[in-house]
Amino acid sequence: MSNDFKAQLEATIRKFGDDAGTVRGAAAHHLSRCGKRTRAKFTFTAAKNFEHPDVLIKIAAASELIHEASIVHDDVQDRTPVRRGQPTVWKKYGSNTALLLGDHLIAAAFRCLAASGCRHEAISGLVQVMAVAVSRASSGQLQQLKLHSSGAALCNQYQAIARHKTGSLLALPLQFAAVLAAGDERMINAAQRCGEQLGLAYQILNDLEPLLLGGSYAEHEDIVDRVVTAPVVAAKQLSGEEKDLFLALVERRKLRELARQHCIAWAEDAADAARNYAAWLPTPVEMVVRDFIADHIIQPLPCEPLPKRLPTGLRTPLLATANN
User: Fold this and answer.
1) pLDDT(137) > 90
2) Most buried of 61, 110, 275, 324 (most Cβ within 10 A)?
3) C-alpha to C-alpha distances, 283 to 187, 192, 216, 269, 321, nearest whole angstrom
4) Looking at the structure, do residues 79 and 12 belong to the same domain, yes or no?
5) How confident is residue 223, by pLDDT bands cut at 50, 70 and 90?
6) Cβ-contact 54, 12 below 8 angstroms
7) How far is it, in rounded angstroms, from Cα 230 to Cα 247?
């Protein structure tokens, strides 16, 4: 992605994001630090064969504005104090302002999409898939707030959360590309399922970081705050009746290693599922998916040889709930 595109993208995000009335100060504060812009890059790369670059800038910006809205809302509910090296919106301006800013950013995303100049026949499809993505992401966030490590269906719950909360917004660029390619409902649904599996793998790898980095695992915030992550889910499957999964992961090195192997296998399964769904997409989009898997999922996996995969009875196929 060229520097010119990046500059235009940031200008577009700020134009629609900062036009926020009484929450403008909070918007400017939040948008002053940009993230990786993964969704925008994904949008532009996946859809560049199907629409003019100037149009794609606004469509890509819409995907990022939706993501920014989800971050602002999540920070309120998770009580996150710092984001991208500065105080979060709720911490600096209060929860009410943060909630209203998140609502504004959602509206700004739809305004940005409407102002994209995209051909008329595609607009309704773009709006529809973005609306569905917002609903699924909201559902995932609510599921996460209710998640508890003692739940009987913990694995299925975790997968649903990852697919909905993380995956739905990662799927959005693929759905945009499918709509712009004049794809039918089957193609658009395949794009959604593909992106959700990418999101699942992405989330698992993110959850694995504390096990791969140096430092005390017992002092990591996920353990201290008792956040249900992929290693916790794996530990529950591996240890059966263990009452305190967090303490068990801290105290039992062998369990941590088995959980790590288990999670790597999950991520690989999710990547395989994403490739299968990608086969239903136009060839340029399928190639984008395969490149994303190579760069952001397979490459970050630990490079040392893995032991033989865990017995089938200990692994829950990720596709078991893929169509829920």
Assistant:
1) yes
2) 61
3) 12, 16, 45, 22, 26
4) yes
5) confident
6) no
7) 15
Structure tokens at 86: 């500065």
Residues 192, 316, single domain; the answer is yes
pLDDT of residue 146: 86
Question: Is residue 95 situated within a structural domain?
Answer: yes
Identify whether residues 220 and 291 lie together within a single domain.
yes
Question: Do residues 311 and 235 both lie within one domain?
Answer: yes
**Structure tokens of 239?**
């240890």
Local confidence band at 311 (pLDDT 50, 70, 90 cut-offs): very low
CA distance 315 to 294: 23
Whole-model pTM over 0.90: no
Which CATH number does the domain housing residue 237 bear? 1.10.600.10
Task: Provide the β-strand partners of residue 82.
Answer: 87
Out of 118, 152, 174, pick the residue that ends a domain.
Answer: 118
Tell me the average pLDDT across 16-44: 92
Tokens coding 63 = 């995907």
3-state SS of the chain? Answer: CCHHHHHHHHHHHHHHHHCCHHHHHHHHHHHCCCCCCHHHHHHHHHHCCCCCHHHHHHHHHHHHHHHHHHHHHHHHHHCCCEECCEECHHHHHCHHHHHHHHHHHHHHHHHHHHCCCCCHHHHHHHHHHHHHHHHHHHHHHHHHHHCCCCCCCHHHHHHHHHHHHHHHHHHHHHHHHHHHCCCCHHHHHHHHHHHHHHHHHHHHHHHHHHHHCCCCHHHCHHHHCCCCCHHHHHHHHHHCCCCCHHHHHHHCHHHHHHHHHHHHHHHHHHHHHHHHHHCCCCHHHHHHHHHHHHHHHHCCCCCCCCCCCCCHHHCCCHHHHCCC
- Identify the pLDDT of residue 314: 37
Closest CA to 275 of 198, 200, 204, 205: 198
